[in-house]
């Protein structure tokens, strides 16, 4: 059977493919965006998991928008105004796919920062969107480029990860958030705010969502993969009620609804008296690993390799001198350390800046130290 045109130019995700190579014995993986599974709050979930066997009705077909008690909880947690609603998704990744299906016609223009989240490049690629890239500054997208893009092209959506970006870890400043919201309103561009790492802040104060400055012009994608577990596959989209209704129609066709038993377990977890303590411990563990990795980099890698400092999230972006990053990542794997080359995060390969994405949440301090030793050898060979 001939593949659909939309699939012909789409590559399978490099990261999902490298994960199996990265799990070979002896390989230290800094490649995936994986939370540490020893942190999964299974003890806090144990009672609701065992109670499930008495709750037959949860195993019946459910509402497409989600399990009503969970939706009610989210309405008050996220202080949604009466004109807004939400839909539970099978991971925030599904939310992104629903948005593309609901709002993008082939050829519509979508703006993303370069580099950008690979899963979003895939979704908008499959939707046959025309992807426009703007470069990223240390405090968010380059505003001059963004405004020129909005002013000169017919842009439908701007997709972004303002809190601890994947892959760079960048967190947008307050001023950038306000300006982007203003530009999106001025040029009537929908803003898609993807915030799976928002709760993983290790330093500094939480900043308002960009969407809080343009609530009727935006959709927020949340994920419970990093603060609960990825395997429950639950995310949420919030926004104007008529936009959420459109997503609901698409989700009916996609999978009817997300797992109701898992939504009930998530609700119990989020309301558990010890859940905040779980988040405190999670942040402390990840922050100590971040500090260990950045210290090792400063100590062991040549000075022309530069790691940005981040206040949260799961990634360090290691900028490198001019080199073939794909060959470097391949050679790193052969030397027992899995990393992701910057090339996979760019829509336009001609604009790739040499760098590696390093994940610090799923390796111990000892493994991070050993990984940097291995990386130092490989960088010597390639750069
Ligand atoms: N958006 C971004 C920026 C991500 O990094 C990820 C996962 N790594 C997702 C969305 C998808 O997350 P989920 O597990 O909720 O589908």
UniProtKB/TrEMBL annotation:
Q: Answer yes or no on keyword Transmembrane.
A: no
Q: Which Pfam families match?
A: Aminotran_1_2 (PF00155)
Domain of life assignment: Bacteria
Q: Name one GO molecular function term.
A: pyridoxal phosphate binding
For activity, the cofactor(s) needed are:
pyridoxal 5'-phosphate
The protein's UniProt keywords, in alphabetical order, are:
Aminotransferase, Pyridoxal phosphate, Transferase
Record-annotated Aminotransferase class I/classII large domain positions: 27-375
Q: Which GO terms describe its biological process?
A: alpha-amino acid metabolic process
List the InterPro entries hit by this protein, alphabetically.
Aminotransferase_I/II_large (IPR004839), Class-I_PLP-dep_aminotransf (IPR050859), PyrdxlP-dep_Trfase (IPR015424), PyrdxlP-dep_Trfase_major (IPR015421), PyrdxlP-dep_Trfase_small (IPR015422)
Mind telling me what this protein is named? PLP-dependent aminotransferase family protein
């Amino acid at each position: 059977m001939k593949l659909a045109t939309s699939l012909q130019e789409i590559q399978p995700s490099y990261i999902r493919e490298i994960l199996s190579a990265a799990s070979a014995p002896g390989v230290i993986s800094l490649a995936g965006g994986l939370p540490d599974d020893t942190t999964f709050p299974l003890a806090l979930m144990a009672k609701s998991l065992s109670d499930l066997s008495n709750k037959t009705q949860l195993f019946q077909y459910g509402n497409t928008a989600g399990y009503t008690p969970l939706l009610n909880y989210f309405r008050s947690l996220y202080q949604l105004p009466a004109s807004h609603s939400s839909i539970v998704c099978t991971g925030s990744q599904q939310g992104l796919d629903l948005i593309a299906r609901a709002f993008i016609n082939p050829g519509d223009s979508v703006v993303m920062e370069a580099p950008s989240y690979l899963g979003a490049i895939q979704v908008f690629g499959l939707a046959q969107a025309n992807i426009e890239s703007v470069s990223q500054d240390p405090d968010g997208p380059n505003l001059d480029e963004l405004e020129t893009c909005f002013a000169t092209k017919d842009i439908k959506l701007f997709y972004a990860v303002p809190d601890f970006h994947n892959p760079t870890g960048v967190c947008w400043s307050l001023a950038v958030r306000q300006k982007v919201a203003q530009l999106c309103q001025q040029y009537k561009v929908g803003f898609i705010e993807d915030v799976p790492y928002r709760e993983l802040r290790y330093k500094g104060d939480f900043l308002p969502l960009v969407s809080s400055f343009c609530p009727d012009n935006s959709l927020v994608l949340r994920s419970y993969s990093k603060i609960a577990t990825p395997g429950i596959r639950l995310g949420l989209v919030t926004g104007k009620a008529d936009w959420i209704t459109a997503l609901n129609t698409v989700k009916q066709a996609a999978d009817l609804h997300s797992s109701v038993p898992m939504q009930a377990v998530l609700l119990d977890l989020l309301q558990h008296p010890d859940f905040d303590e779980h988040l405190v411990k999670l942040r402390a563990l990840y922050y100590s690993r971040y500090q260990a990795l950045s210290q090792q980099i400063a100590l062991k890698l040549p000075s022309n390799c530069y790691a940005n400092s981040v206040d949260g999230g799961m990634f360090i972006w290691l900028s490198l001198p001019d080199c073939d990053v794909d060959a470097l990542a391949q050679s790193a794997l052969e030397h027992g350390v899995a990393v992701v080359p910057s090339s996979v995060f760019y829509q336009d390969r001609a604009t790739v800046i040499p760098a590696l994405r390093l994940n610090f949440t799923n390796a111990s301090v000892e493994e991070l130290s050993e990984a940097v030793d291995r990386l130092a050898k490989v960088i010597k060979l390639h750069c």
